[in-house]
Design a protein that fits this description.
About 85% of the residues lie in helices and about 0% in strands. With about 90 residues, it is mainly α. It has one domain. It starts with 8 loop residues before the first helix and ends with a helix. It comes from Fervidobacterium nodosum. Keywords: Membrane, Transmembrane, Transmembrane helix. This is AtpZ/AtpI family protein.
């Protein structure tokens, strides 16, 4: 039997799919990282000033908001990059 070689598109598609997974995981790490930093700083300031979870709540919300903002900004930048690559083809 003659087996014809598959075109190199399969490796290109694999790389593209891995790139998409990277974007999603980076989005998750960005959000989680900012929340963790907010929690740590909130606990630190609560211990420093003797407040009861005031800074923890405020900085956790700020960490969540900044994580979402930075994550969405990153995704939009990557979408723009993919659109430019598609126009070149």
């Amino acid at each position: 039997m003659d087996k014809q070689k598959q075109p190199e598109k399969s490796s290109v598609n694999l790389g593209r799919e891995l790139s998409k997974i990277n974007i999603v995981s980076n989005f998750g790490f960005t959000i989680i990282g900012n929340i963790v930093v907010g929690i740590i700083l909130g606990l630190f300031f609560d211990n420093l000033f003797g407040t009861k979870k005031l800074f923890l709540i405020i900085l956790t919300f700020l960490g969540t908001a900044s994580g979402l903002y930075n994550g969405i900004r990153y995704i939009l930048k990557e979408v723009e990059k993919y659109e430019r690559e598609e126009k070149k083809k």
